[in-house]
Structure formats: C-alpha cells, structure tokens
Design a protein that fits this description.
The chain is mostly helical. It has a single domain, classed as Cytochrome c oxidase-like, subunit I domain (Cytochrome C Oxidase, Chain A, Up-down Bundle), CATH 1.20.210. It contains 18 helices and two strands. The longest helix is centred in the middle third of the chain and has 35 residues. It is globular. Bound molecules: protoporphyrin IX containing FE and copper (II) ion (CU).
Length: 554
C-alpha cells in the first residue's frame, strides 16, 4: 500500500483506533492537568509558600495532594496515553484495524470505570496512601479495586494487540513484523508479565484486607510484590516514548532510523531484563538476603545496556536527518535539526534531560551509593527527569501532531508550542537540579518541607529554586493546554499529514529471524524472573503471619 497523501488523510473519516485514541487522550489530559496543579502546590510549599489553605475544599493536606499528584501523573496520564497510542500506532503500522473493536471500547470503559471508582476515595481523602500505597497504610477498598480494574484493562489492550498481530501474521507469514507494531507488542507483553506482581498484591493482600476479610497484612511481602511491578512499570512508560524516538522522530528530523535490527534487539532485552530487578528499590528493607539484592543490582546495570543501545541508535538517526539538512561537524550538526517543529523539539529536549536522568539512575541502582540518596528529595528529582520529562515531554511532543491528526485541524500557536517545550526544559532543569541538590544535603522526600521543623538554614536557597523551577513548569503546562485547547476549538486550517514511519538505513531484513520470534525471549524472561524472585517470594509468601493491622495516619 502506498502512503496516503495529505489530502486523502484529511478526507478519510476517523478510524475507530483514532476515536479510541481520542477517548484515552481526553482522560489522560484531564489527569495531567490535575497532576500539574498539585505539583505546583508542592513546589511552592518547598519555597515557603503554603497554598493548601486556599484549596482546602478539594485538597485536605500536602499528603492528600501528593497522592493525587502521583496517581494522576504516573498512573493515569501515562497509562491512558499509552493504551490509546500504541494500539493506534499498531493499527497504522499493520495497516489493519484492531482485531476486536468492541473489546477495545469495552476495555476503555472498564478502565475509565475503574479510575472513577478509585477517584472517589482519593478525592474524599480516604486513600491518602500515595501512589505506592505501601501497607500498613490502609486505603478504602474502592481505591484498590478501582486500580485493579485499570490494570485488568491494560491486559485486555494487550490481548487485543496480540489478536491483531496474529491475524496479520496469518496474512503475512513470511514478513518481518513492522517495527512500530513489534515494539508496541513488546511493551505490552513486558507489562503483562510485570504487572502480575501488582495483581497478586491487590488480589491476595490488599483487597481482602481492605474489605475486612483478613485481619492483617504483611508490609514486606506487599512491598516486594509492588516492586516486582514498580520497576518495570517505568519501562512501560518509557518504551512508548522510545517507540516514537525510533519510528517517528528520525523521519520528523528528515533522516532515517540508523538500525532496525539494533532497535529490535534493544526492545527484546527490555522484555527479558525489565522485571527481575525490583529489589533495587528495597536495598534498605530487612528480610531480603543481601545476595539477592546484589543480583538485582547487577541486573539493573544490565538493563542499562539496551538504554545505551537506544541512545546510540536514536542519536545516529537524528544525526542522519541533521546531516541531510546540511549539518556538519561532530557536534555542530545538532543545531541543524528542525528546531522549529515543536513536536520534534519536545522529543529531542526530552532525550537531553533523560541522559542526565539515566546517569542519576546508575547512582540509585548502586547498592552502596543508593544509601546516600535513599528516600531523599534526590529521588523525585530523578523521576521528574525520567517519567516527568523523557516520557511526559515526549508525549506532549507527540500530541503536537496527534491532536491535529485526530481533529483534522492544524496546530494553533506553533510559536507558543515551541515556547512551551523550551519552558519545560528550562523549568525542569532548574527544578530537578534543585531537588537533587536538596537530597544530597539530606532533605527528605514526601515531606511538607514548608512545615518541617528540622529544615536546615543551608537548604533555604535551594528550596526557593524548587519553587522557581516548579512555577516555570506550571506555566509551561498552562501553555500546553492553551495550545491543545486552541487547536481543538479555534483552529481553522486543515491539519497537515501526520509523520510517516521512518525508513531504516539498515532495514528489518538484515535482522536475524530470532529477533522476530517470541518464545525464546519469553522463556528467558520467565527463567530470569524465577531465579531472581522465586526463592524470596516463596519464602515470604509461605512464612507470612499476615498480622499487621492497617493504619490511617492522615
Ligand atoms: C508542574 C509540574 C510539576 C511540578 C511542579 C511537580 C512537583 C513535584 C514535587 C515538588 C514533588 C516532591 C514531593 C515530595 O517529595 O514531597 C513531586 C513528586 C512527584 N512527582 Fe511531580 N511535579 C510536576 C509534574 C510531574 C509530572 C509530569 C510527573 C510524571 C508524569 C510527576 C511525577 C511525580 C511523582 C511520581 C512524584 C513522587 C510522588 C510520591 O513521592 O509519592 N510530576 N512533584
Ligand atoms: Cu527501579
């Protein structure tokens, strides 16, 4: 099939995947809005400005707001965006609709209903347990049940993708899976495996406990199951951003993907390595043998490797674009990227900050250095570079072509969009640097520092920079919503064609066939998980007394 021309695309009625994408995106954007408002409150608190009394009808405390912030940003904004975006791209890449359209819509409504159920206790201050919901903090049962329904929905998205892929495979037995579809499948298959920990925690521990069916719980077992999912969830957020970096951004930059086989290799490594390393979040937890923690530390360094492959491959691809546009030199070509395109600029700036986030991640992952930063403000400093920028700014960049495509109208306010993107970059650089620094000085995370009696005089200047950076981020977010809202409501020009998928310099047919097989990689993943987690989880599950009572500390 030849690619459609711009006018064909404009005249083509919206496909069902596009409408579904629009539905998921709507929920995602509402969540992001709530997420950035609560973020501003936190950042201003750190700068000594307490706005909580002003929002007290909605947000009862710093910790209530922090729960809303974490849940809306990293659980809702990301998940809903991804569940719309990857099926949408897959349908485009395979040039066929999703296998089960009705299932697709049922999934969306299941997830939205789950979210609504969880939102009731969250907003009502009956689930102020933050997005990690560690017991013995105990939330209302509707919080756990609602989030579990959202997770069940993601499995149905995965099922729909697999069925779609199988139907495509029947029609094309000898072809290599198109890269965007392959990557989307890997992301959802990886997530399905990884989310089993969370599902077990919910179904066997938290839901029965919150319903009063069992008397107590077990903090260590719950945390271990949580982090079984909680580390790989970061790849569930990141891989969709990588999908855009690999399959669309090179084309947006005017170049080609450097290597398709290398891209597949990196994703398969993520499939195998993402899950068996969650103990790096539990280095300080008693009750897990240090030998297993050390193994998880090594595996964490191993999963850094596919990220390095990504860095190399994506940079080389962008470079091919910049050189085609006349870029020269070792570094200077960077300036020749099409910086006037807000969609690409957002993604390249997201990549830049992500390199710093990746370097910081190595510190978090180190068994010994982790002790310096553990539970300090460094950690949110880090995660705003990763999920808060690499993922969020990339998704924003994607919406700069996606929203016009969905609504058929050109982006309104291209300059404003560029300003938004740069403000996020500058605001985040300031915010995140200040948070990292505060952490190194010993300031804790998850703390209303504005009310803490132990704040040290030397933290004060840095705390103000948190407020400055956070405010710039908030302004950037407002511009973002203005551009998106303006495009939907006021744009009168027709939308240009969406970016095509990038061709590859070294194409899929250069890749060994094993890179298009599933079984060996799934077996390898299962074996590694069994080794890394099996003994500890079996011991914890078979010896737990389940006697810890729940606490409501808020
Ligand atoms: C206007 C933009 C934002 C601002 C000003 C902001 C500010 C903050 C601050 C100050 C904290 C630290 C709270 C504490 O440790 O006590 C925090 C935590 C956090 N932020 Fe943001 N944030 C913003 C956007 C985002 C985005 C876009 C994401 C992810 C997509 C995100 C994810 C998180 C997470 C996961 C935490 C940790 C929550 C916890 O510890 O339970 N934030 N944010
Ligand atoms: Cu982790």
């Amino acid at each position: 099939m030849t690619p459609a021309t711009a006018s064909e695309l404009r005249d083509r009625p919206l496909g069902p995947e596009a409408r579904m994408m629009g539905a998921y995106l709507t929920v995602a954007l509402v969540a992001l809005f709530g997420g950035v408002v609560t973020g501003l409150l936190q950042a201003l608190d750190h700068a000594g400005i307490n706005l909580y009394p002003w929002v007290s009808p909605f947000i009862k405390s710093y910790y209530h707001g922090l729960t809303v912030h974490g849940v809306l940003n990293v659980l809702v904004w990301t998940t809903f965006f991804i569940c719309g975006f990857l099926p949408y791209l897959t349908a485009r890449a395979l040039e066929r609709p999703l296998a089960r359209r009705r299932l697709g819509w049922a999934t969306f409504w299941l997830m939205t209903a789950g979210l609504a159920l969880a939102a009731i206790p969250i907003m009502g201050n009956a689930a102020t347990v933050m997005f990690t919901f560690y017991p013995p903090l105990k939330a209302h049962w509707a919080f756990y049940v609602g989030l579990t329904l959202v997770v069940a929905g993601t499995w149905l998205v995965a099922l729909n993708l697999v069925l779609t892929y199988r139907a495509w495979r029947r029609d094309h037995p000898a072809r290599r899976t198109p890269l965007p579809a392959f990557m989307s499948l890997v992301a959802f298959v990886m997530w399905t495996i990884a989310s089993l920990g969370l599902a077990a925690e919910m179904l066997f521990l938290l839901i029965p406990w919150s319903l009063g069916l069992v008397a107590g719980t077990d903090a260590l077992l719950a945390r271990s199951l949580f982090w079984f999912t909680g580390h790989p969830i970061v790849y569930f957020w990141l891989l969709p951003a990588y999908v855009s970096w690999y399959t669309l951004a090179p084309r947006q930059a005017g170049g080609k993907l450097f290597s398709d086989p290398l891209a597949r290799t990196s994703f398969l490594l993520f499939l195998v390595l993402s899950t068996p390393l969650g103990f790096h979040h539990q280095y300080t937890d008693p009750g897990i043998h240090r030998g297993w923690k050390l193994l998880h530390a090594f595996l964490t360094f191993a999963v850094f490797f596919p990220s390095l492959l990504t860095f190399f491959n994506v940079t080389a691809s962008l470079e091919s674009g910049a050189r085609a546009r006349g870029g020269k030199g070792w570094i200077a070509w960077f300036g020749k990227l099409p910086w006037g395109d807000p969609s690409l600029a957002a993604q390249v700036l997201a990549m830049l900050l992500f390199t710093l986030g990746g370097a910081g991640g190595l510190i978090n992952a180190s068994y010994n250095l982790n002790l310096v930063v553990h539970n300090s403000a460094w950690i949110p400093g880090h995660l705003h570079l990763t999920v808060g920028t690499a993922v969020t700014l990339t998704f924003m960049g994607i919406t700069y072509w996606l929203v016009p495509t969905l609504c058929g109208r050109a982006l309104l306010g291209r300059r404003l969009a560029l300003a938004q993107v740069w403000l996020w970059f500058v605001g985040m650089a300031i915010f995140s640097h200040a948070m990292h620094q505060l952490g190194l000085m010993g300031a804790p995370r998850r703390t209303m520092l504005g009310a803490a009696p132990y704040v040290q005089p030397e933290w004060a200047a840095t705390m103000r920079w948190v407020g400055v950076g956070g405010s710039i981020l908030f302004v950037s977010s407002l511009l973002y919503f203005v551009v998106i809202g303006g495009t939907l409501l006021a744009s009168r020009r027709p939308a240009p064609a969406p970016p095509e998928f990038a061709e590859a310099l070294s194409g899929p047919d250069h890749s060994p066939l094993v890179l298009d097989r599933w079984r060996p990689w799934l077996v390898l993943a299962a074996v590694l998980i069994a080794i890394a987690y099996g003994p500890t989880l079996v011991r914890l599950a078979t010896t737990t007394p389940l006697i810890t009572p729940g606490l409501r500390v808020w």
